[in-house]
Every structure is written in structure tokens, then in C-alpha cells.
Specification:
Length: 323
């Protein structure tokens, strides 16, 4: 049985999973990013293109670029049976983003769920700013909170434009909060500086009719209750390299939030075929029961991964990921 035997489009199946509704046929599949477009199609991934040259292009060249980018997204979804497409765009290029949404819809109709990055919360700072960030939380907490509120305000204002334009289904919020050993902020600090703003952002998106997916790598278990309470439709990654067990997460929160991911990315690079197959089976066996699950890796299909290993992963999913 393939993903489409139920008569539902990939988009409809993805939405049903986000809503934790029962499904028939193959469990939906989604990857945050599929970077191996050069190996798969002979084309550079859209996020690796030189957008800084955009201002030098004439409009005819821009339109050719837009259509080629859209074709890469649609071809990836078709070949690897993705139910959803994350469109990469810059917040500074909102005009181009709506054009890209239109072209992808023109090429694929309503077949795929379309989403954008949409996080506006405080995450792990880069190594050069960690100490400064920690000091600011202690020395000027009110100023940090004002900045956090302003970030959410800007994100919601931009989302209104996408809502008014149409064609977009939702946002995935990709700010990372955790290392493999645990969150960057203690649960109490996280509750003070992140959770209220994450909850307001998600509530704002949902009020506009958008679906919301919260992504973060690492060991989320010390703060997972706060993530779920913030109200996203789904949690993405469920990182087994950080000890996140999809069976435990399903048991604790499967009646409240859709789960996406959990196939061990590290094993896709360094493990045996048997270890990869075991990771795929574990994710399917514990994620699928009762619905509310989307199959995928614990991060993305990143540059340097062997395409053959990803295709092996999909072969196991096609055989065994069926309701």
C-alpha cells in the first residue's frame, strides 16, 4: 500500500497527522531540509544559492531562478514522497517569498503542505556571545524580555501578510534550545525568558489559521512539558542522539501533540544498514500507534550524507510504515 491509496493527498495526510486523526495507508514523511539536490537532480539546493546577487539580476533572470527553485522543491517532494515542503526564504525578502509560494502552488496545486521558518524566540547563542547573553539575563532581564516581545510582534506582523496572501499552511519554529546533555537554560530560566513568548507566538499563528511545528535538537526532556504546554501542533526532531526516546514521549504526550522524526541521523552516516533499519522500525513502531506521527530523521538530510543511505531508510519505511 502506498501513501496515496487512501485517496488523500500528501498535504491532507500531513494535516490529519498534525491533528492526530486516524490514518490509513502509509504514515506521512517529512524532512526539515533535503540538501542532496545536486546528487539527486544536478541542482544546487535553494538555500545554497547566492541571494546576495538578487539585486544585480534583471527581472527575467529572477523569474527563471524562482521557477527553478520551485521545481527543486516539488521534485524533491515527489521523488522522496515528502508530504510537506519547507520553503527557505529570508525575512528581508517577503515579496519574493509570496512569489515562491505562488509558483510552488502553480506547479503542485494543493498536493503538498507548505511551511516557512517562523521562530522568534531566544535560543542558544553562538559561542562568541554566550557569556554576554548569560550576563544580560542576570543584569537586564526586563530589557531582554522587551526584546523577546518585539521579536514576536515582528514575526506575527509578517505572518499576517502571508495569511492575507494565502497559499501557506504553517510555520516551523527552528530555534534550538538544547544540547545533547540538556537545555541551555535551566527549566526555571526557560520558563521566564522563552516559554511565554513561544506560547504567544504559537497562539498568534494558530489564531490566523496556521499550523505550528516546534523544532529543537538536543535533550528536550527537562523542558518538554513547557514545549507541549505552549501549544504547537507538533514537536520535531525528538533527538535519539540526545537520549530522547520516542516511546516515552508518545506515552507522556501523544494525546496532546503530533510527533515528527526520531530516526537517528548519526547512524545514517556511521551505522550499519541493520542499525539504520532498527532505528527506522523503532520510530515507526512507537510513533505510529493511534496516529499523530510523521516519519522523518532526527534532524535533516544534510550535506555529506550518502543519498543511498537515505534511500535505504525510505525503503524500510515503505515496507513497514503502513497503517
Amino acid at each position: 500500500m502506498n501513501a496515496h491509496d487512501s485517496g488523500m493527498t500528501p498535504r491532507e495526510k500531513f494535516i490529519a497527522a498534525l491533528d492526530r486523526k486516524p490514518l490509513t495507508g502509509r504514515v506521512p514523511h517529512f524532512e526539515l531540509v533535503f540538501y542532496l539536490t545536486m546528487e539527486a537532480f544536478g541542482k544546487v539546493h535553494p538555500s545554497h544559492r547566492y541571494y546576495y546577487q538578487w539585486g544585480q539580476m534583471e527581472e527575467k533572470e529572477r523569474e527563471l531562478h524562482r521557477r527553478d527553485v520551485a521545481e527543486v522543491y516539488v521534485a524533491t517532494a515527489e521523488r522522496f514522497e515528502h508530504s510537506a515542503i519547507l520553503l527557505h526564504s529570508s525575512a528581508r525578502m517577503a515579496d519574493e517569498t509570496v512569489k515562491l509560494i505562488d509558483i510552488v502552488r502553480e506547479q503542485s496545486g494543493d498536493r503538498y503542505f507548505l511551511m516557512l521558518h517562523g521562530d522568534a524566540t531566544l535560543g542558544i547563542p553562538d559561542g562568541a556571545h554566550m557569556s554576554d547573553f548569560a550576563c544580560r539575563l542576570a543584569d537586564e532581564p526586563d530589557k531582554v524580555k522587551d526584546e523577546a516581545n518585539a521579536m514576536v510582534d515582528r514575526a506575527l506582523a509578517q505572518a499576517e501578510r502571508f495569511r492575507d496572501h494565502g497559499g501557506l499552511d504553517g510555520f516551523i519554529m527552528c530555534t534550538d534550545y538544547c544540547f545533547n546533555v540538556g537545555p541551555f537554560l535551566s527549566p526555571d530560566r526557560f520558563a521566564e525568558f522563552v516559554t511565554p513568548y513561544l506560547a504567544r507566538l504559537i497562539r498568534g499563528y494558530r489564531d490566523m489559521g496556521f499550523y505550528t511545528i516546534k523544532h529543537t535538537d538536543g535533550n528536550i526532556m527537562p523542558i518538554i512539558d513547557q514545549l507541549v504546554d505552549a501549544g504547537p501542533h507538533a514537536l520535531h526532531s525528538l533527538d535519539p542522539q540526545a537520549g530522547v526516546d520516542i516511546a516515552e514521549v508518545k506515552r507522556l504526550y501523544g494525546d496532546r501533540v503530533c510527533l515528527i522524526g526520531n530516526v537517528n541521523c548519526g547512524l545514517l552516516d556511521t551505522g550499519t544498514d541493520e542499525e539504520v533499519a532498527e532505528s527506522v522500525r523503532y520510530a515507526l513502531q512507537h510513533g505510529m500507534p493511534g496516529g499523530g506521527y510523521v516519519f522523518g530523521t532526527s534532524n535533516c538530510i544534510y550535506t555529506g550524507m550518502r543519498l543511498a543511505r537515505y534511500e535505504f531508510m525510505l525503503d524500510v519505511w515503505r515496507r513497514e510504515g503502513n497503517y
